[in-house]
Amino acid sequence: MTTATATSNKNLFWDSVEKTESGYVPGDPIIINGKLLTNKAENFRNEMFRSCTTIERFAAECFMTPPKRVLDLGAGIGANTRPMAKRGAHVTAIDSSKELLQIFANQCVADGCPKENIRLRHGDITIMKSYGENFKLVVAVDILSYITPKDLHLTMEKIQKCLADKGILIGTIFTTDTDPTMRIFMGKMGAHFYEGGKKFTEQLLTKSGFSVEKLEAREEGGFRFKAVKVSTEEESS
Q1: Which of 110, 201, 206, 208 has a CB 3.0–4.6 Å from the CB of 156, allowing a cystine?
Q2: CATH code at 130?
Q3: How far is residue 127's CA from residue 14's CA, in Å, rounded to a whole number?
């Protein structure tokens, strides 16, 4: 394949990503199977993020011997990275909610995390120019599907750039093969669902400068992945 062809295919991929539609309207009610869950989607979504204690399995694999420098994007209350900080990792946690970051900080105190192991940054990851540099691990669990499709390409580029060579990315993505009821519900909460299932997820990673190490279907739909940043030498070869 020529360089021009590869570039064209890459552009076509990102063009298709940007066409993915959203079903999220913050002020709308959420009605599933005729049952009213909430009068306002935004309130229900915020409550979901406040109470989210789910630990992604690939992140849990790092708990006992975490990398030295970790970045948690869309950190929420920190379920996936607080255990790493407690065991010596220096965790930078970014979230657009000050409330969630405060819960993160309070829970760190309760967990006995050394204060110097945590750095909290409030902001929108789609607007930030950079997340930092030389991280050994980036955790992006249940965040990539919640940013607008037009921002996904640049976000993946910034993730790739902030990692050290051979750095690891752990994350999740929703795809259209998710259970229909779950898809309707999560869509109204702001999630985007991408066409292509496993193949899409592989392309998302490889076209962003990663090699796929692990890729598994999630029980709730979509995929979890563990990927490694391709080194500068490998990219140019």
Answers
A1: 208
A2: 3.40.50.150
A3: 19
